[in-house]
Amino acid sequence: MRAILVGIWNKETPREEAKESIRELEGLVEALGGVSLGYILQKRDRPDARYFVGAGKAGQLKEVAKGTKADVVVFDDFLTPSQVKNLESLLGKTVLDRTDLVIEIFSRRARSREAKLQVELARLTHQLPRLYGKGKQLSRLGGGVGTRGPGEQEAEIRRRLIKKRIHQIREELEDIKRMRRHQRKRRSEEGVIKVALVGYTNAGKSTLLKALTGRETFVADMLFATLDTKTSSRKVSPDLKILFTDTVGFIKKLPPELIESFKATLEEVTEADIVLHVVDISDDRWLDYIHTVKEVLKELGADEKPVIYVLNKADRIVEREEEIRHLPHGAFVEGPSVIVSAEKRWGLENLIDRIREISRRYTAMPSERL
Questions:
Q1: What's the confidence (pLDDT) of residue 263?
Q2: Would you list the domain boundaries of the chain?
Q3: Coil, helix or strand for 269?
Q4: Which of 215, 213, 217, 216 lies closest to 236, judged by CA?
Q5: I need a surface site. Which of 145, 173, 174, 180 has the fewest CB within 10 A?
């Protein structure tokens, strides 16, 4: 995939913020094995109804795509079905939006039955509106990025099949949610403290889970390296057992279809006693990423949970563990924080102590809980 990236900026989304979002979009393209040939940003108060960008910029985009021999043009926002149709007709190239990329990455990374169902639901929910019209936009159905369908008659058949499959998937996911609720109830009765790891994608959550519990898990320096929920336990004292659950990483402009379809996974966050918000402090944009994750937690109704900020990857800033106490990052977050390096295992005992401290309110008698 040889891609040209496209975005807009305005008063609500300043140019620098739009450029950061484009850089993240470039990471999504790379996660699919593609290469970004360049990007185009246009200042617009609102997207053009026909081409997203203005007609003149769309014409310029056509020449750029032709000159660079790009085969895909990727937009950094959601495109309507008519915009996709108009752009592909004008450009003669496959046109994708950010949602297409994220869903395709999720589709390739899903391993468990649950994750595969969630991704399929997101893909079908995203596809359904694009089947309306003249039936020429049977895009992204079953064959991955860029596939097409045969026409209007089959489009109607596909719509009925998709709606039926969406209903089946939702029923299966409800069964999974009921099973999870039963498991959580049993754990609660056993006096187990539930801790959910959340954070921007590639913040180091899987590495932290492995460091805290010893559980082997896939770790890679890429966006959405892991999708499946992982749960491991650690006994920190004779009377305290902590159950750690990793969750899917967040990004800016997380597609609504994925938030909805991943509710069964993200429900672990809403049911947790404590949330570990893992942050890559070696990234210059770490404070922006904290804001993004907090917004998603708010949308999930989990923004009132006790949170510990785990300021990770300190080994990329200082050379020795004793130097982390001089780092100022904790002063920039609201709430308890611990600076660590999950990879080097720095600061993990401090983190466990902080979890134990907050856990006391849950191990007390119900009437004594805060």
A1: 62
A2: 2-104, 110-143+152-185, 191-368
A3: helix
A4: 213
A5: 174
d(CA 245, CA 78): 31
User: Do the beta carbons of residue 342 and residue 204 sit within 8 Å?
Assistant: yes
Query: Strand, helix or coil at 337?
Result: strand
- State both tokens at 365: 């008698």
| 26's tokens | 């470039």
Name the nearest CA neighbour of 246 among 281, 285, 272. 272
Tokens for 126? 């995203």
Q: Which residues of the chain have pLDDT under 70?
A: 132-152, 184-191, 215-231, 236-239, 260-267, 361-370
Quick check: 150 and 110 in contact, CB under 8 A? no
Cα of first residue to Cα of last residue in the chain, in angstroms, is 53
List Cα–Cα distances, 79 to 18, 73, 84, 146, 163, in angstroms: 17, 12, 6, 15, 21
DSSP 6-25: EEEE-SSS-HHHHHHHHHHH
**CATH architecture, domain defined by 2-104:** 3-Layer(aba) Sandwich (3.40)
CATH topology of domain 191-368: Rossmann fold (3.40.50)
Cα–Cα distance, 209 to 231 (Å, whole number): 9
Determine the length of the chain. 370
User: In 10 A of CB 279, how many CB atoms?
Assistant: 25
- Residue 112 near residue 248, CB atoms below 8 Å: no
* Contact by Cβ (8 Å): 126, 257: yes
pLDDT of residue 94: 93
Could you give the angle at the alpha carbon of 146 between the alpha carbons of 29 and 62, nearest 5°?
75
- Triad 42, 43, 47: Cα angle to 5°: 80
